[in-house]
Amino acid sequence: MSAAAVVGARSLRGHPLLRGVRRWWWGWGGWCRCLWALSAGSAAAASPSAGPSSGSGALSPFDRRLKRKQKNWAALQAEPAKCEYLREEVGGRIADRVFDITRTFPLALDVGSGRGYIAQHLTKETIEKLIQVDTAENALKNAVESEIPTVSVVADEEFLPFKEDTFDLVVSSLSLHWVNDLPRAFREIHQVLKPDGVFIGAMFGGDTLYELRCSLQLAELEREGGFSPHVSPFTAVSDLGHLLSRAGFNTLTVDTDEIQVNYPGLFEVMEDLQGMGESNCSWNRKPLLHRETMLAAAAIYREMYGNSDGSVPATFQIYYMIGWKFHESQARPAQIGSATVSFGDLAKIDVLLSRGKK
Asked: How far apart are CA 343 and CA 288, in angstroms?
């Protein structure tokens, strides 16, 4: 029984079981945050078994071929929409940010579009034509309907097959956290944008699925005497602004939010993650868990994080980012020392305004 069945709706926007949360966990939960943070750091660290080298020379943490297979498998399920509630929710929030920009975009690009989770929320008055790019051809073939004219292209987020200065807008929702070379991906996006073009994206953040991660690690420590990473490492929000700036973006906005979904239990969480195409694809992942360890993890999950109604929460931290490509027409900050009024005069603002009117 999936979370979508518990909620009983295809879209979770505004549903009480899907809520934004901003809270810190202390006690055992706080200790677990430190525990899995160390695990995530070690998973991203360079090691001989981490996998092949990427184009930048750094070791690649993710098996991109496996991720493509996972996404293709998820797109071919009988009811793929029942596990897409989170992607649809975040896609709608990305669309809201597009609507906040009062202009029409003649040509836009959706990087890691999947089945078109952003496009279904957009209108042809805002975007005249949309190119959807994803590594999974099955997701593109089974895209949801949109009123915007779209073209599908099978391509990798790190190697966009487009000329420089092509798009007025680039969007991306819940895809870039699987990229091996995130700085390169940002540079590719910046390159295909036209001057004064904007990039609006969302990706999972470091606190995502901390309940699941802690429960699995504690169960492994108890039953097997050690633990392995079972949830992929994520980028820290403190790094995003720096990476976007290095890629050439300016007028940056980075903010974070958390979405919490309630499930019947640990096994339903993992089932829906598989249905989303979000199963772990790290090179140093453990191929399987013993049955006793899984049962212990489910019990720990319910004991530590369970709700009063018997369900368990799963937290998804989302990073939203907006960056612009430079153009001469864009507003610039004033030069240092050019101010004509000091902060000390702010208390006299009414007097200063009255003098200006005279």
From this structure: 61
Beta carbons of 201 and 90 less than 8 angstroms apart = no
- What is the value of pTM for the model shown? 0.75
Q: How far apart are CA 101 and CA 220, in angstroms?
A: 48
Nearest residue to 175 (alpha-carbon basis) of 94, 243, 250, 96:
94
Answer whether 205's CB lies under 8 Å from 318's CB: yes
Distance CA 288, CA 35 (A): 21
pLDDT in tens, 144-201: 888 999 999 999 888 999 999 999 999 999 999 888 888 999 999 999 999 999 999 9
Radius of gyration of the chain (CA): 22
Beta-bridge partner residues of 17: none
Number of helices (H), then strands (E), belonging to the chain: the values are 11, 8
Selection from 301, 274, 282 nearest residue 229 by Cα: 282
**Span 303-349, pLDDT tens digits:** 999 999 999 999 999 999 999 998 777 766 667 777 776 777 766 77
